[in-house]
Each structure stands twice: as structure tokens, then as C-alpha cells.
Design brief:
The protein has 264 residues and is mainly α. The protein has two domains: 124 residues, no CATH class; 96 residues, no CATH class. Helix content is 52%, strand content 5%. The chain has eleven helices and four strands; from the N terminus they run ααααααααααββββα. It has a two-stranded antiparallel sheet. Helix 1 runs antiparallel to helix 7, helix 5 crosses helix 7 and helix 7 packs across helix 10. It starts with a helix and ends in a 24-residue tail after the last helix. Belongs to the cytochrome P450 family. Pfam families: p450. May be involved in the metabolism of insect hormones and in the breakdown of synthetic insecticides. Keywords: Heme, Iron, Metal-binding, Monooxygenase, Oxidoreductase.
């Protein structure tokens, strides 16, 4: 979460030393059990949820991140105007993109067609920048991903390694060969990546995936037709432990990810 806060907002959260920091507190509210029903209804029956006044996220938490984003955007634009200091985070990239589009004659407002006067819109031209609401949505998504899913994966990987000592020893030996840990070096740690993939298979951080059928689909030889536009809910826990796809599905076997047939 500290990394997400620094890379997106350019703020120092220091969640380990400050557990009562507002960002930490409001994220905990989002993941509290009280919001489970609201989130389920918002995902599966959005019209009913709207009629009942239910929101996917806690409204007070959303209001906090709304105000936080507005404040950071205002402060950043003010500092850029009167100082030469710049940050290299997501918010700054959006501000720089907005300036670039204005130089080209594009309007970043969501209410205006972002095409310069006298020109036609083509596929290669920019379409404006993210609105504040879109920035908030992206920020929420990044914080949610960094707060719960990453920690869940780390906790489960430690559990599976502690109960499979041969895997733990093998991973330790591979990590011992690495002198520094960067994006360029970790991508070549094949067993580490296999351990992460196998952990995600056995303990997927998300319990449900929502998809929409893009065309009429016949379900095998069952005779069942899934009409276009149908909401499809996928339960990854069951899919990842289906013996038709995974030999010994309940066993922690990172080596299965070395097979060239798997995707990704």
C-alpha cells in the first residue's frame, strides 16, 4: 500500500508505523464485512442496488478519496506553476498529458469533443485526459489491489511454502543465486514465478469474476444457449481445483507451471 500511495499520489503513507493513518483506516472500511451485501447486490443486480440506495464502496470512504484526489491535484498544479519541482507519479503524468493535449489543441474536458477546430478525429489522435472522477476510480482500484490482493497472495504463499519444505528449499536456493532484486532480474526467477502462480491457483484473491457474454454461446453438448448480454459469474476457486484441468488439484505443485501448454 505504501508503494501504491507513493507511485500514484506521491504521498508517504507509512502504514506500518502509522496504522491509524486515514488512508489505511478508510481502506479497512471498504473491506469490512458490512459492505459484502452491498457489493454483491451492486455487482449482480445494479438496478435493484440503486433502487435500495446501496453503494459498492462505503460512501464515506469514497468521499475521503474524492477529497484527497482533489486536494492533491490542486496542490500539484499550484506547485508546478510556482516551482520547478516535479514528481514522477501517476497524478503528475496525467497533468503533463493534459498540458500536452492543450498544446495540440485538444480539450481534456469530458463534455467537449477533444478534436481541434477544423480537424477530424482519427484513431491516432489523443482523446483527452482522465477526469477527476476517473482519477479517483483508478486510485481506488490501485489501492484495493495493493491493500488486499497482494497481501493475501503473500500470506498464502508463505503458508504453502511452510507446509511444503522441499518447495521452500528449492525456492531458497534459487533466490540465493540472485545478487539484486529488480524487475529485470526477478523475471528470470522461474521457480519464484511458478510458486506465485501456484499460490494464485490454490488461493485466488478474488472470489468472483464478473463477465458479460458478447455473443450467443452454446454450452457444449448440453443444448443450453447463453444469450448475448448475459451476466456470467465465474467462481475461480472451483475452476482452479477442477481435476479435469489440474492433476492432483489440491496439491501445491509449482512445477506444473513449467509446462509449455499453460496460459499465461
Amino acid at each position: 500500500m505504501d508503494v501504491v500511495g507513493a507511485s500514484f499520489y506521491g504521498i508517504n503513507i507509512d502504514s506500518l508505523n502509522n496504522p491509524d493513518q486515514p488512508v489505511e483506516r478508510y481502506l479497512k472500511r471498504i473491506f469490512s464485512g458490512n459492505g459484502t451485501f452491498s457489493q454483491a447486490m451492486s455487482s449482480m443486480a445494479p438496478t435493484v442496488a440503486k433502487w435500495l440506495g446501496l453503494e459498492f464502496f462505503d460512501t464515506e470512504s469514497t468521499a475521503y478519496f474524492d477529497a484527497l484526489t482533489d486536494r492533491i491535484l490542486s496542490e500539484r498544479k499550484h506547485n508546478n506553476k510556482y516551482t520547478n519541482s516535479r514528481r514522477t507519479d501517476f497524478v503528475q503524468l496525467m497533468i503533463d498529458s493534459e498540458k500536452s493535449n492543450r498544446d495540440l489543441g485538444y480539450d481534456s474536458s469530458s463534455d467537449v469533443d477533444p478534436t481541434p477546430e477544423g480537424e477530424s478525429q482519427t484513431a491516432g489522435q489523443p482523446k483527452g485526459t482522465l477526469t477527476p472522477d476517473e482519477l479517483i476510480a483508478h486510485g481506488m482500484s490501485l489501492f484495493v489491489a495493493g491493500y488486499d490482493t497482494a497481501s493475501s497472495t503473500m500470506i498464502h504463499s508463505i503458508f504453502y511454502l511452510s507446509t511444503n519444505m522441499d518447495c521452500q528449499t528449492r525456492l531458497f536456493e534459487e533466490l540465493s543465486t540472485c545478487t539484486e532484486f529488480t524487475n529485470d532480474t526477478t523475471v528470470h526467477l522461474k521457480y519464484l514465478n511458478a510458486v506465485i502462480h501456484e499460490t494464485l491457483r490454490l488461493a485466488p484473491p478474488l472470489t468472483l469474476y464478473h463477465r458479460v457474454c458478447r455473443q450467443d454461446y452454446k454450452l457444449g453438448d448440453t443444448g443450453i444457449i447463453i444469450p448475448k448480454g448475459t451476466n456470467v459469474e465465474i467462481f475461480p476457486y472451483a475452476l482452479h481445483r477442477d481435476p479435469d484441468y489440474w492433476p492432483n488439484p489440491d496439491d501445491f505443485i509449482p512445477d506444473r507451471w513449467f509446462e509449455s501448454t499453460h496460459h499465461p
